[in-house]
Glyoxylase-like metal-dependent hydrolase (Beta-lactamase superfamily II) (Hoeflea marina), 294 residues
Amino acid sequence: MSPHPIRMDVRPEVKAFFDPATNTISYVVKDPGSAACAVIDTVMDIDYAAGRITYGHADAMIAYIREHGLELEWIIETHVHADHLSAAPYIQGELGGRIGIGDRIMVVQDTFGKIFNEGTEFQRDGSQFDALFADGDTYRVGGMQAFAIYTPGHTPACMVHVMGDAAFVGDTLFMPDGGSARADFPGGDAGQLYDSIQKVLALPDAMRLFMCHDYGPNGRDIAWETTVAAEREHNIHVGGGKTREDFIRFRTERDRQLAVPKLIIPSLQVNMRAGEIPRDKDGRPMLKVPVNGL
Ligand SMILES: [Fe+2]
């Protein structure tokens, strides 16, 4: 028996917004029984070379929510992303809603608070977020029950969020031909990632899985939706009964060859603050670069 309140008969409408600059997919998820909705993993646009922030991607989501007369209740982050910046506060300012993330955000804040040499004004208690989820916590989007599952490995604070027959897997899994996300960031762990992926694969076969990223491997078109059954059978890193040892060996070897994500430095500073841009002592929005510090 699953410990989770799974409702495969509840089928939320899921609208995807693909960001070609970072290969991120953001979602608007609508309760089938009301106008309530949630957004998952939003993106703030940055031209890092110019230090310029814009909101084209977030504005498209806001326009969609307004045009459809939806009420935004939740702004969910599956984890502290290292490859794009969250637009959570901007969207909250326009539409309301509560910003939520896994409660192990405190571990991430502690790690990167040190790396970025943040002062004591940077709280490492998750208080920048409106809600912190523990493993198995439930919450509601209108009449639809949702829940969160701890899925550490890519980062310590990763969670998968399930709403009806749809699961938002963050960076635990990619599409079957994309495999899995890296596990070499500070606090990452390939063995933990394998165990977390098993939790996702234990969900019902027909559950819809929505990815946070897709890179269109081997020239195929960008895709973001699959099922538990398809991942279990075909995922190139964990499907078809690959062992934990196989996965750890492969993942560790592959991660050694991966370049650092282009936006990791601004992403971590912003995302560990729930999407707020840090400020200097005079209150101006300002980012740091720790030299040889990552
Ligand atoms: Fe990530």
Summary: The helical segments are 56-67, 88-95, 105-115, 190-201, 228-234, 244-257, 264-271. The longest strand covers residues 13-19.
